[in-house]
Amino acid sequence: DVENTMGTIRCIKEYVLVGTVDSRGGERLGMLAVLDLEDSKADKGDLREDAMEAIKKQVDKLPSFQRPAVIHIVEADLPRTRTRKIQRRDSAAILEKIIAATPTKSEARLGISTAISKAIASVTGTSAKDITSGTKLREDLGFDSLMAVELSSALAALPRSGSPDPDEISKCETVADVIQLVGASSIEKVEDAREERKIPDPL
Question: What pLDDT, on the 0 to 100 scale, is given for residue 46?
Answer without folding.
Answer: 86
